[in-house]
């Protein structure tokens, strides 16, 4: 391995892997570093013996119709399977099929108030203001729970503009939702196979603590297996999560940039890494399929608004004794402070509420979760835009001095931020920018 690479890529999640693969293809030498002992970052699949469905501790769904992930899966002979199915909601203590779309009402209120042409505000201030007077309390509750559950956002902080754009008709919420049939780790296999190992060197267990940079030159200070080390390159692509960039200098995953990233401060102040808790519960059998005469045999989602975990889902179309309990936003942020034991207990209580009379504790076999908000290499689940942060993602993504480039889900500007697709796109974009600068020379 040469003493000085063309590019150091920090972070071997979807963005870093996509960037390294593209750079290798363009003939550049790359050192891909990650502090973890595995690739994938916020993609982390757990395969359990005897369980037909994968357990996804991080990303699980392919949102929208973007081709990136299905194309990657096809390269390793895997497929994306449709994950949409029946939705059942707990209403007055009884599970009922959801019929009308309250989301349509919220969209109509955004449109009639013409929110995008007005100064930005928080979603909450819109919902409590005069422009939402015509909205039913039920529709307002749905808007709050959607912002929390889907966007991992606090309705009091999230930008109304960002929400109105994301929820617009024909956008992400109207498109299909699928899953990699054999788990997201198959996507990692495809990404890993795409690396040209003659040019791209992957070094795991390497915690980058500082990055010294000047035009045409970077030096990373890191700890590898607990020992200090230094690595040099002509440029760097930084793909660490936005929460890591925001962390105080003495936080365990933080990177000291020298000189500091002053031009990124306005963006870092307007992007928030939201919280999510996802608890996967394996049961002895899919007991819900037999309840009430088999009415829920084809249920994909159960909604229990007002409950601490308002959304549960099954592994359909795969039939498996697995339920995932999900909460996002401020409630998740609070619960993230609790012990794993308490988190699992809360999730079990919610399942007990949705299926009254079922002896869920006797049925349970194991529970799994990862607390991303307390993980110093993630500092949260995924990013959202705070009020007034309309340009924050562009600002964060902008290269510095033809030497530092930025990728990661939070830097996506194609409407796919906070997702694996957004991370992949941002990695490809940053690789193209870096490649262009390297071709020009110092
Ligand atoms: C619970 C959960 C559920 C989700 N569900 C979905 C979903 O269903 N669909 C979807 O599309 N998206 C989902 N997401 C979001 C998706 O996982 C992310 O958008 C995507 O994986 C981010 O990729 P990335 O490369 O930008 O960041 P990451 O995957 O976080 O990669 C960044 C890497 O940087 C490394 N790193 C950090 N600090 C340092 C350091 N100092 N030195 C060296 N390395 C460092 C980290 O270890 C990490 O591997 C979910 C996320 C979570 C947490």
Structure, described:
It is a single chain. With 442 residues, the protein is an alpha/beta fold. 29% of the residues lie in helices and 25% in strands. It has helices at residues 14-25, 68-75, 102-113, 123-128, 137-149, 160-166, 185-193, 242-246, 265-270, 330-335, 340-354, 360-363, 392-397, 420-440, and strands at residues 4-10, 30-33, 45-46, 55-56, 62-63, 80-82, 86-91, 94-97, 177-180, 200-203, 206-214, 217-224, 227-238, 256-258, 271-274, 276-283, 299-303, 311-313, 322-328, 364-368, 382-385, 404-406. Strands 1, 2, 10, 11, 12, 13, 14 and 22 form an eight-stranded mixed sheet that branches. A seven-stranded mixed sheet has the order 8-7-17-18-19-16-20. Strands 5-9-6 form a three-stranded antiparallel sheet. A hairpin with a 2-residue loop joins strand 12 (217-224) and strand 13. Helix 2 (68-75) crosses helix 7. It is globular and about 70 Å long. The two termini are 22 Å apart. The site of flavin-adenine dinucleotide has 40 residues, from helix 1, strand 11, strand 16 and helix 14.
